[in-house]
Design a protein that fits this description.
- By secondary structure, the chain is an all-alpha fold.
- Helix content is 84%, strand content 0%.
- α3 crosses α5 and α3 packs antiparallel against α6.
- It is elongated.
- The chain starts with a helix and ends with a helix.
Length: 190
């Protein structure tokens, strides 16, 4: 915690004392973590932190991809059901010679049928898959997402822990980070 900034913002001596104790506890936790994980040097900690971040980001991308596949699958199921429900009405509409009167009477069904057909054409589907197979595929995607999400939560926790340890080690060793030049610029302005 930046104690100086807190004092400038109007915090009192009690907050300053609490912040100092908090910072010491954070630093001691970082040192304990390093001892438990084999006294690694800063470069190893940095690599481990970068790997954890990359793993977290990869799992995030994987989950988003699975969600988009699930959405596409659900939309295809919906369009197949609409197509099947409205097919008979559309066949009658064609037999009636695309009559305006018939279309006015069955506007909703005809539009649903045409929208489903347009969706299939947009996907390049010539033979419709069965709804049962799509539901099985959806269930498989959902299971993959659940597994990926449990890994995602663990990766997020690992990444946060490593980030905190790394930030505390950088503070302890007085290693400049990307945020330091901004602080110096702000101090020079004041």
């Amino acid at each position: 915690m930046d104690i100086e900034a807190a004092i400038r913002s109007g915090k009192g001596p009690g907050y300053e004392r609490w912040a100092k104790v908090f910072n010491l506890k954070q630093l001691s936790q970082a040192v304990i973590w390093l001892k438990e994980h084999g006294d690694m040097n800063y470069e190893d900690l940095q690599k481990k932190s970068d790997i954890a971040t990359a793993n977290f980001n990869a799992l995030s991308v994987q989950i988003k991809e699975l969600e988009s596949q699930m959405t596409a699958n659900g939309e295809l199921q919906k369009q197949i059901v609409n197509y099947a429900k409205t097919r008979a009405v559309y066949v009658e509409y064609r037999k009636a010679g695309y009559s305006k009167k018939f279309r006015a009477a069955h506007e909703t069904e005809i539009l649903l049928h045409q929208a489903a057909k347009k969706h299939f054409d947009g996907l390049g589907i010539t033979k419709l898959p069965s709804v049962k197979s799509l539901r099985e595929e959806y269930a498989g995607l959902l299971e993959q997402k659940r597994k990926a999400y449990s890994s995602y939560k663990q990766a997020r926790a690992d990444m946060k822990e490593l980030y905190n340890v790394r930030a505390n080690v950088e503070h302890l060793l007085d290693i400049p980070t990307g945020r330091e030049p901004q602080r110096e610029t702000q101090k020079s302005r004041q």
